[in-house]
From TrEMBL:
<dbReference type="InterPro" id="IPR051446">
    <property type="entry name" value="HTH_trans_reg/aminotransferase"/>
</dbReference>
<dbReference type="Pfam" id="PF00155">
    <property type="entry name" value="Aminotran_1_2"/>
</dbReference>
<keyword id="KW-0804">Transcription</keyword>
<dbReference type="InterPro" id="IPR036388">
    <property type="entry name" value="WH-like_DNA-bd_sf"/>
</dbReference>
<keyword id="KW-0238">DNA-binding</keyword>
<dbReference type="InterPro" id="IPR015424">
    <property type="entry name" value="PyrdxlP-dep_Trfase"/>
</dbReference>
<dbReference type="InterPro" id="IPR036390">
    <property type="entry name" value="WH_DNA-bd_sf"/>
</dbReference>
<dbReference type="Pfam" id="PF00392">
    <property type="entry name" value="GntR"/>
</dbReference>
<feature type="domain" description="HTH gntR-type">
    <location>
        <begin position="12"/>
        <end position="80"/>
    </location>
</feature>
<keyword id="KW-0663">Pyridoxal phosphate</keyword>
<dbReference type="InterPro" id="IPR004839">
    <property type="entry name" value="Aminotransferase_I/II_large"/>
</dbReference>
<protein>
    <submittedName>
        <fullName>GntR family transcriptional regulator</fullName>
    </submittedName>
</protein>
<comment type="similarity">
    <text>In the C-terminal section; belongs to the class-I pyridoxal-phosphate-dependent aminotransferase family.</text>
</comment>
<dbReference type="InterPro" id="IPR000524">
    <property type="entry name" value="Tscrpt_reg_HTH_GntR"/>
</dbReference>
<keyword id="KW-0805">Transcription regulation</keyword>
<dbReference type="InterPro" id="IPR015421">
    <property type="entry name" value="PyrdxlP-dep_Trfase_major"/>
</dbReference>
Length: 462
């Protein structure tokens, strides 16, 4: 009756089903403005339900203004409700089914199978059971103070980096730090300087705001900072300990030059230290922050060391920026969830982090060796690996090959997920002879089989 079909096994009440059905017909014009609805008794009889159910549905329509009801008169549809129906419900899904990916060389993905989930679960459980009631209140944009203290100690142990816990601000990953910093640091008509190639996250954040950009070319030693000597900038973004994606370490001369420029031109440097814990030859590289904490904003994350879904990162801020940061963060999302922060505090405090990173360094070093050996066996002496022995990815140069726009789609069709370095460049004609392969999450057989499949595809396309 009246186009209403009731489903008794639905989780939606019968009254709400009637309301939703009538509302839809009113909005689409099936029931016209000024049209009289049947009496509650009549509609209840037609639907085989109780009159109280129909009365409840009519009350919903009346409350939200879809009908007008006067005592002793039938309910009438309100004027001006007819809406032109959209195409969302009628269009067919034209997306083609994507081929299955068998070898996924995505970057930045740790091996989650080796994370100590049992220990982490116990820490989260303890945090839940011991959490004081006042910790359930708003705590503000700074973050959980005990976690800030443990991060300070972790930075000293892992990077010989002296940081005051008061200067550490917890974030929802590194991306949120970039999101906040871009607005905090922007100076009208002054561009942000990025490495070329560089991480798409920071570039996207800047482009979305229509802020100007300029680029520093990257060689095997990282960013060439001489390109920005005469420029007035909003800020400079660099990955000095493990350039993304080419992997170089910014040498001391370039670091000193960059810091001098920042002081002379009065801007800040954003240092993204996204995975320098994993270095397979020697100790982790000392952060740029250690050379001048007053000019460098250090951004770190636990996505690569623990797991991406944790969504806990941090920024070490100069005092002059902290008030502005608090304001921006307070009106973005206020704070991170407290349970994960408490669990991470214990994870750091009992040195579980230290042991986990030490273990994973050995694991990833072996995977890297497997990838490079497989690549050299497949492509011979022509192949060259870029970057220091660190991180969860490697850039491979094949100087006799140019990877065009069709290469990535062709890889996907053949079950291979991979990136070209040119995808991360401001100019798609840069570094066209290089591929980027992440390996942290893959086992040795997947790496070897993936390289073999890549070799077959490249041979077929030449």
């Amino acid at each position: 009756m009246w186009g209403i079909e009731l489903r008794t096994n639905s989780e939606i009440s019968l009254a709400r089903q009637i309301f939703l059905s009538l509302r839809k017909r009113i909005l689409t014009g099936d029931i016209l403005p000024g049209e009289l609805l049947p009496s509650t008794r009549e509609l209840a009889k037609g639907l085989g339900t109780s009159r109280n159910t129909v009365c409840e549905a009519y009350d919903m329509l009346l409350t939200e203004g879809f009908i007008i009801s006067r005592q002793g008169a039938p309910s009438m549809v309100t004027e001006g409700l007819h809406m032109i129906p959209g195409n969302a419900g009628t269009t067919q899904d034209t997306k083609k089914e994507q081929p299955a990916i068998h070898w996924n060389f995505k970057t930045g993905q740790p091996d989650l199978s080796l994370f100590p989930w049992s220990s982490w679960s116990q820490m989260v459980h303890r945090a839940l059971n011991t959490l004081p009631v006042h910790q359930l209140e708003y705590s503000g944009p700074k973050g959980y103070e005990p976690l800030c203290r443990e991060i300070s100690k972790w930075l000293m142990r892992s990077r010989s980096m002296e940081v005051n816990p008061e200067d550490i601000f917890i974030t929802s990953g590194a991306t949120q730090a970039f999101y906040l910093l871009v607005d905090i640091l922007y100076k009208k008509n002054r561009p942000f300087a990025l490495e070329n190639p560089s991480h798409p996250g920071i570039r996207t954040v800047i482009n979305d705001r229509n802020y100007p950009l300029c680029f520093m070319p990257v060689d095997r030693q990282g960013a060439d900072v001489s390109w920005i000597k005469k420029m007035d900038l909003s800020a400079v973004y660099v990955t000095p300990s493990h350039q993304f994606p080419l992997g170089g370490i910014l040498p001391a001369v370039r670091r000193a030059s960059l810091i001098r420029l920042a002081a002379e031109k009065d801007y800040y440097i954003i240092e993204d230290d996204y995975d320098s814990e994993y270095r397979y030859s020697g100790s982790p590289v000392t952060p740029l922050y250690s050379m001048d904490p007053s000019r460098v904003i250090y951004v770190g994350t636990f996505s690569k060391t623990l797991f991406p879904a944790l969504r806990i990162g941090f920024a070490v801020l100069p005092k002059e920026l902290q008030k502005k940061w608090r304001h921006f963060r307070n009106y973005l999302d206020v704070q991170n969830p407290v349970l994960e922060q408490i669990a991470l505090t214990e994870f750091l405090k009992i040195r579980k982090m230290d042991r986990h990173v030490h273990h994973m360094c050995r694991v990833y070093a072996k995977k890297r060796e497997t990838l490079l050996s497989a690549a050299k066996e497949a492509f011979g002496s022509q192949i060259s690996a870029w970057g220091d022995e660190s991180g969860l990815h490697v850039a491979l140069e094949l100087p006799e090959i140019k990877f065009g726009k069709d290469f990535i789609p062709d890889c996907r069709k053949n079950g291979i997920q991979i990136q070209t370095i040119s995808q991360y460049c401001s100019d798609e004609n840069c570094h066209t002879d290089k591929l980027l392969l992440g390996y942290g999450h893959l086992n040795e057989k997947e790496i070897q089989d993936g390289i073999a499949a890549l070799k077959s595809l490249i041979d077929a396309s030449i």
